[in-house]
Every structure is written in structure tokens, then in C-alpha cells.
Design a protein that fits this description.
Blueprint lengths: L1 H20 L2 H23 L1
Helix pairs in contact: 1-2
């Protein structure tokens, strides 16, 4: 769970940097990555 949380936080920071720099396609990729880790965290918490 710790590893997934760290990956989520890293993706969040990357998304913010991409948004700040105007890199829209990389921003959307980072959002998709965040969504993946969020779903993993929910699945782990449910078990």
C-alpha cells in the first residue's frame, strides 16, 4: 500500500508540473496514471 501511495503522489506532482508548463498531453497521461493508482488503492483497501 505504501508503494502505491508513493506512486500516486509522484504522479500527482508530475501532473501539476505538466499543467504549470502547459504540456497538455503529458498532463493527461499523468492524470490517467493517477487514476490507475487510485483504483489500486481502493482495491487494496477493500480487501
Amino acid at each position: 500500500m505504501k508503494n502505491v501511495t508513493k506512486q500516486y503522489e509522484l504522479s500527482s506532482r508530475k501532473a501539476k508540473e505538466f499543467m504549470k508548463n502547459g504540456q497538455i498531453s503529458q498532463y493527461f497521461e499523468a492524470l490517467l496514471e493517477m487514476n490507475k493508482y487510485k483504483r489500486l488503492m481502493v482495491a487494496i483497501a477493500a480487501n
